[in-house]
């Protein structure tokens, strides 16, 4: 932390010397200017990463350690404590930064105080709104003329009580504090019980508009506001009737203060014709002005220093222009970075007249996420102000979600667990209510996408064509069930029931439409299966636990009984198809049972070869704020030998792995971050942490060069790194410029081709690594997520996640051969199952001998087997909750095991796809099931504290025995394999 | 009014609106929607020769999911009502960016857009210049007046006034074309190619420039070339305007810009998309717009613009220094040719999107093959990072 602070301080000083304004004049004074300084930190960080690629990479560890420190004081397992602690900590980090910036020009500022200036004494409190969002409320603002220090305020006639100018409510944004240049200010911040949280004094020596914000994620969730310091000469430059001129501030009709937060505007208006009264405008308001009025806009970027992605915006107002301050440049778009402010005077309707002129963020994904409103310019008497119309407010029919990197809490309703089921990802509002999303606690990029919505609902589907940092605001006019999720990480779910209060039961609606366009009745089996999945995914207490209840950290022997699988459902009446009202808990329990006995753990009779690495992506350890470890299983004795958490880099949601040709290094992608980590397979020690681009998902190596290909799920291509990850050499775009971004997830490679599943465009791209060009693109099903390939690369298989199909491609011709429907034996209405099924398929590798394919289906918790000769579904096998990852390893003395991981469980399923080795997979069976929970003998670099063994994602058996890689193995690994295993397709 | 008195055909235009007369149009099957002309007076006395620009363009779709604007007709009518057809300055292909429009403070434009995409509504929303609400080019859900895009059944006409105080280089783009894959919030598909620039030259004909390192006011007419570079999420898209012959040449993706040594060239850096960029031309400095402050980079976000004029002194590279973008190939060359008697000074276009052929978006659900488009750009390792630290 200290290191980071120092770094920031140096950077701030650098900015001071280069930019001369804003900060230097405030150094000695504490509160709001420290806030300004804090708010500038993200900009500094941005500049660093932009200006110098090399040094930006070098600084990564510092950023991580900072992030870690930010979260250190909170109890990670209890979100309520987190919020509480953060509230206690309002401004506390600011104070420490401010003390570190105490400088020697205090006396200079003292001299600046002139006897004509005013003294302000302000008291604000922090209140929690009904949505769970924190907000500031003005308690008292007293201005006294001709005072020179805080102790001079007394009840004499020089005191003016400004408190009535402010809203009586706690508001987002917080009160706008307006001073004149040279005023002296004392601010006390208290909690709702009146306990002093912070007290600061400062001299308003620099004119301008400044952001104040709490230095935690609560800053983005509601604790921010503006300070306006008007200049002594009381004029601002404006573009008036097409000419750049000085305009007296006392002739301004309004001040409109707009904060760009996530992907939502939050506003405040000051009515200069009505004693400067402040009115909160809440979200995306309709601003109002009369033609020829002069309104000063203040646009502020909100973001906290701990969020490495930053929420960057460009503000645009239709049909109006203004002067970029400090220049004669006329603009109508301005970038607004976190902590940055932009003030300008608008000559209302000049040359364009009345109109409902749109204002919006011009970042395309933010536009799609609804970051817009209107400036309603009306004709009329400019001497009379018309109040702006406020938007949706947290006081009325509003839900606020925060996106996080924490298991199950990916979409956290700030109001907490409202159903007493353990899920914090469900909100209930009335129809026509609004839902706000904030990516305030995530390190990567995401989308906010309507996975499920009532058939025909307005504003639906809600979606973005690219992943981004920000948030969203959406109005839910139709009653019914809405489930929002991230398209990149489709287990990140936030549910909203928009209820019609005039009907009995919470409205789920008659029918729901799914993201792939399928519509089913809410009474259907498919609908209730999705609800079951929702409650399973979003509450860790609803996950499967193969750990013996008495010894969570102890070794689990294969005979230990495991706890039954209990899923807590809300005990509420819901209104479904045809207005039928049923109890949700009863319905789900009667359809799917409760307290189901989990399959017993048992080691396979025949050993595997080498070791099997599993990304236990949700396992939490003591020294990290972010979840995720890589767990190693010794396949000879089926014991957990190693767990690698990499606390020194706060490894974040390790998702998928591969290794070099010597099998010595493990490459692990941080799917919720922007780095790929490399550690030593034997020692578990970190070798390197490389920034590759947002949300790296899967990694494989070239069989020819041993170079790494890392799919950048949050970007538009695949990163190419040198052998052993020596450097990031290039990023290979997976589309022509201007085509919609592909967002590839789980690619696969042959000697010549790389095939990527382009999750956002519904295509698979065949990239020719020899010619270095895209051979072609093939339309697949909805949300292709992972690829399997026959050993010679001739056929590729694409798991189409939301369609539950497998698209079979001719790789060389880049054509679709057929689609295999994994739900052909399932009736979505009745739930009748007449054969093997797979719902929501993910990883889908082909056996190294090319005989069959094993697919992990996360929705159905099944493993499906496809015969690759006929490309037909032949069998399914029971998996665990959130069945996710598959890869093949060698079975001792010949044959293969498919190792299958599950996200919402802590077991590993070992499948023998062809026990009799006749090439026909119809006899596929589960050979064993082992726990991924470590034992006291497990080698660790950090202590597991929660969710042991959970989050099974990527699987990497060592040695790699796929064709092309197996031939490159060092002799000591080859010697463990049979002749057939060493030559998988020469048969 | 000045507007009506000086431009009688515009009065006719107003009458068209009032009586609902069917505007005689090149495409007779298309009923036009014409926005009301801007009512403000031109007060810019610096421009003694204000002109009317009558422009017809189409929105089209290309096979691989790109959308683009295409110039159909461009006439300039001067104060004496003389008409000059300048259509031939433009290519008749759809281009990305779309056709660059060049006006001067005091000019007006009437732009008619037709929809050759074959579905939806494609529009033209501009930044910077004056227009009334019916020329906003947005959807009724935001402007509360009308859906202001061209549909397959009717064109749409926009009226702009480059009034005093609108000098600059402004992006214009689609603001209505939804794609169905994204929801009601779609505000156009500017990311797929429906974007371009209108250059509004100052009425006094002078712009700031950094000439051989010295800040100067230069005459717009002395600028030899204008380069428009749109920085998008994954490429630079360029256009060259050669002011010797007034030719507009599409330069497509990450082109090589070429200029003669010591020539004045003006860069119009524009941006659309979601990402932010760090634009650099190695070894060059220029003036920050509206200041005499020198800079050698610009952090640019979506729909910001950054315009500067420099003298072409030495060959170099331009690029986006954001690592992910640079490594994806967002860079190009700026070649300065000393001896332009033997060497062409035309810029060298980069790869372009496919113009004809089967489209993946039209064959959803079928067994389709999508052949590769023209050469895909790859990040190369040749001259990339070394020397740029």
Short overview:
The complex is a heterodimer of chains A (987) and B (389). Chain A has 987 residues and is mainly beta. In chain A, 13% of the residues lie in helices and 38% in strands.
List the helices and strands and how they pair.
The complex is a heterodimer of chains A (987) and B (389).
Chain A: H1 2-19, H2 31-51, H3 53-58, H4 60-72, H5 79-88, H6 92-100, H7 106-112, E1 118-128, E2 134-145, E3 159-161, E4 177-180, E5 184-190, E6 196-203, E7 208-213, H8 217-221, E8 224-230, E9 235-240, E10 243-248, E11 254-261, E12 264-271, E13 277-283, E14 286-290, E15 294-302, E16 313-317, E17 322-323, E18 330-331, E19 333-336, E20 341-347, E21 355-361, H9 364-368, E22 372-378, E23 398-404, E24 411-413, E25 426-430, E26 433-441, E27 449-454, E28 471-476, E29 480-485, E30 493-499, E31 506-507, E32 511-514, E33 519-521, H10 525-537, E34 573-575, E35 581-583, H11 584-592, E36 611-616, E37 620-621, E38 629-634, E39 639-644, E40 654-659, E41 665-670, E42 675-680, E43 686-691, E44 696-701, E45 708-712, E46 717-721, E47 728-733, E48 748-749, E49 753-758, E50 763-768, E51 773-779, E52 784-789, E53 795-800, E54 805-810, E55 815-821, E56 852-857, E57 862-867, E58 872-878, E59 883-890, E60 896-902, E61 907-912, E62 925-931, E63 939-940, E64 944-946, E65 952-958, H12 971-974, H13 979-982
Parallel strand pairs in A: 1-5, 4-8, 11-15, 14-22, 23-26, 25-30, 31-34, 39-63
Antiparallel strand pairs in A: 1-2, 2-3, 5-6, 7-8, 9-10, 11-12, 12-13, 15-20, 16-19, 16-21, 17-18, 21-22, 23-24, 26-28, 27-29, 27-32, 29-30, 32-33, 34-35, 36-38, 36-65, 37-64, 38-39, 40-41, 41-42, 42-43, 44-45, 45-46, 46-47, 48-49, 49-50, 50-51, 52-53, 53-54, 54-55, 56-57, 57-58, 59-60, 60-61, 61-62
Chain B: H1 2-6, H2 8-19, E1 33-34, E2 52-61, E3 67-77, E4 83-85, E5 101-104, E6 108-115, E7 125-126, H3 140-143, E8 156-161, E9 168-173, E10 195-201, E11 206-211, E12 214-219, E13 225-231, E14 236-242, E15 247-253, E16 257-260, E17 264-271, E18 277-281, E19 286-287, E20 294-295, E21 297-300, E22 305-311, E23 316-320, H4 323-327, E24 331-337, E25 370-371
Parallel strand pairs in B: 1-8, 2-6, 5-10, 13-17, 16-24
Antiparallel strand pairs in B: 2-3, 3-4, 6-8, 7-9, 9-10, 11-12, 13-14, 14-15, 17-22, 18-21, 18-23, 19-20, 23-24
